[in-house]
Amino acid sequence: MMMSDLTPWGRNRTAPVPSGNDENNPFLALQREMNRVFDSFLRGSLVASTLAPLGWTATGPHVEVSETEQEVRIVAELPGLEEKDLAVTLHDGVLILSGEKKAESSGAVYSERWHGQFQRSLQLGPDVDPDKVAASFRNGVLTVTVAKRPEAQRQVKRIPISG
């Protein structure tokens, strides 16, 4: 499975996934512009104003997905949550991160602190091994590592170059 399987514009293709610093990539430019439009649309709303400082979007926490030949690694920033507040499930190649931060009854008259439920689904595809999943949570950062099935791991053969 390639990273393009995780992105809406790259499903069923084997094209490389553009990196976040590729200034000339039209897909990244479109994504940045769409993010800007949605951010400006939500700006001023209670949802956007409470989630933005925390590194959250309206759909859940920000995640970083990386891939090697052997595994897929997902890192999600979840500040203010504890391990007991989180659930991680994998079903049919879809990783679901969900959780809830309960409101604290502090008697505050005004609060910008976020509380509530979230769920984030990431399509990992059929190449991942559901029996080889590990998750760790430390300092508000959730890391999930999902191994790929052996048949999905490509055999890389180094080819010598003669001069």
Structural commentary:
- With 163 residues, this protein is of the alpha+beta class.
- It has one domain: Immunoglobulin-like, CATH 2.60.40.
- It is 14% helix and 35% strand.
- It is built from two helices and nine strands, in the order H-H-E-E-E-E-E-E-E-E-E.
- The protein has helices spanning 26-42, 46-51; strands at residues 56-57, 60-61, 63-67, 71-77, 86-91, 94-101, 116-123, 128-138, 141-148.
- The strands form three sheets. A four-stranded antiparallel sheet has the order 3-4-9-8, with no helix packed on it.
- A hairpin with a 3-residue loop joins strand 3 (63-67) and strand 4.
- The longest helix is centred in the N-terminal third of the chain and has 17 residues, at 26-42.
- The protein is extended.
- It starts with 25 loop residues before the first helix and ends in a 15-residue tail after the last strand.
- Residues 10-20 and 45-54 have low confidence and may be disordered.
- Residues 1-24 are annotated as: Disordered.
- Residues 54-163 form the SHSP domain.
Briefly say what this structure is.
This is HSP20 family protein. This protein is α+β, with helices and mostly antiparallel strands. It has one domain (3-152): Immunoglobulin-like, CATH 2.60.40.790.
